[in-house]
Amino acid sequence: MAVIEDDPTTSAQLAGWIRAARPELSVDQWFDRDAAEAALRRERYDLVVLDIELGRERNAGVALINEINKQGLGTPVLVVSAMPAAIYRSIMKALDAWDYLQKTTFDEAEFIETFLDILRTARLREPKGGARAADDSLQLDPLKQRSAMWRGQRVNLPLTAQRILATLHERAGEVVSYEELFDVVKSGRNRDNVRKHVATIRDAFRDVDPSFDGIENIPMRGFRWTAT
Description:
The chain is α/β, with parallel strands linked by helices and about 230 residues long. It has two domains: about 1-125, Response regulator (Rossmann fold); about 135-225, Arc Repressor Mutant, subunit A. It has helices at about 10-20, 35-40, 60-70, 85-95, 110-125, 160-170, 180, 190-210; strands at about 1-5, 30, 50, 75-80, 100, 140, 150, 155, 175, 215-220, 220-225. The strands form three sheets. Strands 2-1-3-4-5 form a five-stranded parallel sheet, with helices on both faces. A three-stranded antiparallel sheet has the order 6-7-8, with helices on one face. It has a three-stranded antiparallel sheet with strand order 9-11-10. Helix 1 (about 10-20) crosses helix 5 and helix 6 crosses helix 8. The chain is elongated. This is Transcriptional regulator. One of its GO terms (biological process) is regulation of DNA-templated transcription. Keywords: DNA-binding, Phosphoprotein. GO terms for molecular function: phosphorelay response regulator activity; transcription cis-regulatory region binding.
C-alpha cells in the first residue's frame, strides 16, 4: 500500500488505520510528488491513497493519478482530500480514481470500510488479457484547459467543453440528460448552448481524428459517449 499525503499527522493517521485493519499489509508513506512518483515507477502497489494537494503543488495528486494510469496496471486509487466532494468526486472518477473521501467528513470506520471494499473489488476482478495501448484511450485532466488526449494527440478544448466531456466519459454507455449537463455549464444553461459545446467537442476531436464519431445524440434527451 502507499499513502501519499504531505501532512505528517494525516499520513500517520491513515497509515495507522490501514495497519490496524490489515496488519499483514506493508504501507509506504510518501510526502511529496517527486518521491511518490519515483516510488510509483519502482513499486507495484495493491492500492494507493493520495491527496490532491501536496505542498505548494495544488494538483500534484492529479499528476500522480495520470502516472498510475500510464502504467496500465489498474492500480486502485482512493483520493482523500479537503477539496469539496460535490465538485471533485466526479473529476477524480473521470481520471479513473476508484473513490473519493473529503477530509473532516469521514471517520475511521468509513475510511476502513471504503479501503477494504476497494481491495476486495480489485482482487475479485479478473485479470485483463493485456493493457490497452495508451494511444487508444481518452486521457483527461479536467482541472486544466486543453488537456484531453485522444490516441496520443492533444485535443484543444475550452474549460466548459472539457467538463462536459469528462461528464460524458465518466458515464460512458449511458445517456446523460441535458439537465445533468446543465450542472457543469456555468452560464447559458439551455439546450442550445449544451448542443454548441458538444459540437465544439466533436470538431476538436475530428481535428485530430477525422473518423471520430464517439458522441451519440439522443433526440430530446441528451448525449451518450460511445467511443472505445
